[in-house]
Amino acid sequence: MSGGIRWAAGALDGVLGHGLGGGQSAAKAIAAAEAFASACDRQSGPNLRELYTVVCDDGVLDFIDPMVERLAELRPDMTALHTLGRWLATTASDRGAVKVGIAILGVTGLGRDVGVVRALGAHEEFTLYAAVAMTNGLAEPESELWALASAVDGWGRIHCVERLRNTKDPAIRSWILRQGFRNSIMDEYLAFIAATTGGLLDALLTEDVDRELLTAAGEILQALVSGGPAEDLDDYVSGADAVEAFLHHMNTRAETLVDLHTVGEIRSFLSRKDGWESRSAKGWTATRRETFEDRCDEILWREVWRDRITVGLLSDDQTEFWQAERAAQMWGIDTFHVHVEKIREDPLGSGWFQAWRQADGERAEQLVALARDLLPLKEIATGAADELGLGSDWAPHSALDWTLQALRDHVGVGGDLVLVGLDSPVTRNRNMSLQVLRDWPSWAWPADARVVVANLASSDPNEDARESAAEILSDRFD
Hints:
Residues 458-478 are annotated as: Disordered. By secondary structure, the protein is mostly helical. The protein contains 29 helices and no strands.
């Protein structure tokens, strides 16, 4: 099947290492350890081939830790074991074998091979294993972990910074606070480390906070408020003090849309209904919260933001534009016309979502007309298949998604687009069109829809879609 799910470099190990667990395959671990021991005793062709066969698959996290534990029991010659680790790390054509090789180098001590691990770790697929190897294989790994963290920005950075959370090095702590928490996965993973290890409160308590630090502080506080996969603002003992210090600076220095969003997120946090009894012990008293709320409100509704939002909505910079869009939502500013222009400029882009969010009946008709004119509907309606529809090759189908999703709330509008979705090879398109018909009364169905749904109920290549089509027919016409 084309358009299937592909893991980004390091993503599978990152996800498995954060919440899902990697599992432990005892049999695989024992086999791998024994293969290493045999190859250490005699590096013959058969022994090396057996070792490679055992360790070359991608499921390294399933067996790596128990394998190392078993190796400790077998006590192979460490010099020979290190040689095998280097052989795998530098010559293997399978990433699983490279990962095992890096791990073995860490177990046996990196020595002169720290450069090998450093080079491999710069690729996010191997950063986790390089970070662990540096932690295990160097007497003082922090400088290497810092350099590696600076070289990557996804799961690799998360893995490295997590291993620097106990650092006392002022330079590393400052870097984590100002830059190191940012990553392409979720800043929430590292925000707590930035606040604690980085010394957020102490930095904010100084009067000469520079712009770089003030922006970073705002992003950290936003991530802590959002919470999620790691510790959040409720876990941060100094949270109330940090918010107070940040709002103190914002009183005179709130100037960017990032500042506006941070203050807005803090205000939303203060509006939460539950949890304040437990938070009061950490400084979130009722009187203090009321003071914070007043400060936030005064900052949020300064008239200067209107002009800055307007300027941001005209920006070609994607980040600046979406910051302005978020701010416009906060201020209740209508941006429908802006997103219509975005759609005209890039019909396969994401402008559809925000435009449909602001669509009434007349605007729904306008957006449907745009979809008819701008989307390659004949390229989409090529017949049912069981495609996931992921990737750039399926951009037209993904663009149609936004309209199909919205049409549920606009009875009778865009029926021809619903039929296009029913004839799409992307299962998601068909399911969305079926959901539209489920929500619409039968009199609003487009002509031929009943026949098309009946055909899907009997022949759709996806079992769930077949069942959904059959249920809709039963609900409407039995």
